[in-house]
Amino acid sequence: MGLTKTEMFTDQQNEISLFAKVLGHPARVAILQHLFKTNSCVCGDLVNEIGLAQPTISQHLKELKYLGLIKGNVEGTSVCYCINTHNWTAMKTVMTAFLNQDITENQDCC
Amino acid sequence: MGLTKTEMFTDQQNEISLFAKVLGHPARVAILQHLFKTNSCVCGDLVNEIGLAQPTISQHLKELKYLGLIKGNVEGTSVCYCINTHNWTAMKTVMTAFLNQDITENQDCC
DNA sequence: AACATTAATCGTAATATTGCAATAAATTAA
DNA sequence: TTAATTTATTGCAATATTACGATTAATGTT
Fold first, then answer.
1. Where is the HTH arsR-type domain (chains A, B) (predicted)?
2. What's the CATH number where B53 sits?
């Protein structure tokens, strides 16, 4: 079906999976790393840096923006994209809590 | 095309995105949380707990196992699934390093 | 052996994702 | 205004993902 049954899961589980999903493509990982690394965060730079076609990069940027991880500002004919630090931190908190679940209890299960 | 061009990205970027991708479905998040929470990690329990059909759960377990995040042991007619703590820790290291990228430099970009 | 129980696999339908060419939209420059 | 530049959108093709019924495989039970 290709359709995730989100109604069967908690808000927290859906939130974690949505954040993970948007990080689940190497182009989006590369975009985020580039935005962290440099201040020259214009869309065209990302197209050159990453090597995918411009519409493809634009689409990935749209998803990252939809999840709130980046924000974009129009500057003349180009658009400057940057990390939304507030939302990134919020995402990091959610994901880190999930990753740091306690693993001591069921270590000897299998 | 639906086909990710992995050859354009670094091994690190592909690794991060693969880990994120497997966490990018609420059923797999729920499975992992349940395995962390309880020792009764038999496949049938997960089917009851989560509410998706048995083949669907089995498929999600397969993906988690393929990425190494869980391991399964046959116990009679049932199969006991558990967190692979070693690989979970390794994954956590990779993801945490990505999430903790320094955000001070480009805060004022946009 | 015959049956029951449990999980994996197969096959398939429906939806999602990825990628890009073509085009449109928005702004700037001449 | 016209042209140039840059990014977003549209439309589409190809592949991936999700879900589950039906079946198979594996083990245990009687």
1. 8-102
2. 1.10.10.10
Q: What is the number of structural domains in chain B? A: 1
The rounded distance, in Å, linking the Cα atoms of A34 and A40 is: 9
> CA B100 to CA B43: how far, in whole Å?
34
Q: Answer for B79: CB within 7 Å of strand C.
A: yes
Query: Do A8 and B50 lie within an 8 Å CB cutoff?
Result: yes
Residues 9-28 of B with CB under 8 A from A: 9-10, 13-14, 16-18, 20-28
* Exposure on the CB side of residue A65, measured as CA atoms within 13 A: 14
Residue B68 located in a structural domain: yes
Mutant choice from A4, A7, A13 vs B, greatest count of B C-beta within 10 A = A13
